[in-house]
Amino acid sequence: xxxxxxxxxxxxxxxxxxxxxxxxxxxxxxxxxxxxxxxxxxxxxxxxxxxxxxxxxxxxxxxxxxxxxxxxxxxxxxxxxxxxxxxxxxxxxxxxxxxxxxxxxxxxxxxxxxxxxxxxxxxxxxxxxxxxxxxxxxxxxxxxxxxxxxxxxxxxxxxxxxxxxxxxxxxxxxxxxxxxxxxxxxxxxxxxxxxxxxxxxxxxxxxxxxxxxxxxxxxxxxxxxxxxxxxxxxxxxxxxxxxxxxxxxxxxxxxxxxxxxxxxxxxxxxxxxxxxxxxxxxxxxxxxxxxxxxxxxxxxxxxxxxxxxxxxxxxxxxxxxxxxxxxxxxxxxxxxxxxxxxxxxxxxxxxxxxxxxxxxxxxxxxxxxx
Length: 370
Fold this sequence. Notes:
This protein is an all-alpha fold. Among the domains are: 1-175, Alpha Horseshoe (Leucine-rich Repeat Variant); 284-366, Potassium Channel Kv1.1, Chain A (2-Layer Sandwich), CATH 3.30.710. Helices cover 69% and strands 0% of the residues. It contains 23 helices and no strands. The protein has helices at 9-12, 17-31, 37-51, 55-63, 67-73, 79-92, 96-104, 108-114, 120-133, 137-145, 148-154, 160-175, 179-191, 194-207, 213-219, 222-230, 235-255, 282-294, 301-313, 317-328, 336-345, 349-361, 363-366. Helix 2 (17-31) runs antiparallel to helix 3 and helix 10 (137-145) runs parallel beside helix 13 (179-191). Residues 1-19, 24-34 and 255-274 have low confidence and may be disordered.
């Protein structure tokens, strides 16, 4: 026989812990039977409505085993059932006592999956549940580990309230990336599976404090991970990496008074899907980013002129000097005039001085040339 939850409604409204327990147990029973979806939907909806009343109701519902069947229903082919289940979990997740339990029961991954739905209400209920789960710092690392930050950033959300909720979730995650959470993420970035390492590096590039950049991206090899992703043949991986590197570069520009890059020319960075680095090849961009976060880089003649242009564009004086030195080693009678023009075009004073000294030294040969 199908269980119809409305018959319990009057009792539940009195706040009876016994009735809450009965509902939760009944939900488990009907979820494990061939009972109709309507009963499941009604029970999930009623639990969600009760969970919105006070904290005690939320705790009683979870203590009596309602979470596992609600999570299982997130993967139902019935859209309404998924919506009601996400609704109930979203209300339960607003209580601190329940957040770790929902994540431990496997709630994060199916909720993230629902963000891809074309159903606006389903998207919003899932986003609201994730917002609640992100309040618990123990859940932050799990959310990042399974790629949650990328899904939140890349999602195409139908309703504006959903977009606002997602933005608040990302902000909440950002605020918790410190102390114990940051230590655990750093460990995952060093020792986790390759996919996990990359997800953590991408998330930290967007969300960690600039004060932690040295530790994360130099000492713990985060920059190398981002550059490896940049070399991927997958277009999305390249895009994710370039966005993360741009984010890091912009943060670095606000900290450095000498080697500061100008602000990104692309507005609304949080909403944009692609990043265009004008007039800079990938290999040049890679060396530029390596210099920003390590302070040194090997410059060879093949790339020196292009790297000089990029260093001048982003006001990286130290990198310009390295490029000027490499180019100066190749000055000859045949190319000295071109090298001098290059120095003038990019305000490369050291290269200009090297050209002048070379001209004075080789004056007897140069004065008879056309």
